[in-house]
Amino acid sequence: xxxxxxxxxxxxxxxxxxxxxxxxxxxxxxxxxxxxxxxxxxxxxxxxxxxxxxxxxxxxxxxxxxxxxxxxxxxxxxxxxxxxxxxxxxxxxxxxxxxxxxxxxxxxxxxxxxxxxxxxxxxxxxxxxxxxxxxxxxxxxxxxxxxxxxxxxxxxxxxxxxxxxxxxxxxxxxxxxxxxxxxxxxxxxxxxxxxxxxxxxxxxxxxxxxxxxxxxxxxxxxxxxxxxxxxxxxxxxxxxxxxxxxxxxxxxxxxxxxxxxxxxxxxxxxxxxxxxxxxxxxxxxxxxx
Length: 289
Prior knowledge:
single chain, 14 strands, three-stranded mixed sheet, five-stranded mixed sheet
């Protein structure tokens, strides 16, 4: 089987979880980035004797909500485009896990050979606050740990960009990834601007895709769904809750598309340290799907 998907993994901790994820994605090519702040011992456990299909990306510190996560994503696109013929590229975290077999993932993507799969929200988007998400961009931001500092002096927005947002996990069609990289190379002003934007990993690529001068065919080659099951519970926490055995029936239903939506191919967030049993159950389900 020719792999139709290349996977960019942004990981920080839990070596056993990361290695399990890499195994679950076999034989797909994996481009793995481990946060430069991760302890050397953990990094060694995570990367020792990885299969040849797993390429290590140059390490950067990737604190929450800051530009380096986008820099790593772009680095992963470059590596995947340079070394594989994959029709699609997925951006994932170390706490993600496939719900269905690699063969099923490939068959799903073959039905959309030139389409990106992500839920994109054009700004202003009401669910993203009073400004509809534009305050993330209009005001410079800095971060202290997981606390965001907003400087209350508005700045001009880059010209010619149609701003949008999307979740960090996404699947891009190959030529869309190429066009996003071309824009980032041709417009260093965009990089400078987004370096001080809040949660750039949720707005930079989405805004590039949403700008027709950058990605002309995106409206016609866009599946407006998220391929991940994410258990947002409407609480005010900054990350979705961890998944456990109690969530397994909903994971199966989401993978089958029982709700009439796009069948979810992946889910987040899992932790082998917190609940390895749910991953065992998912593996059993994947073997049949």
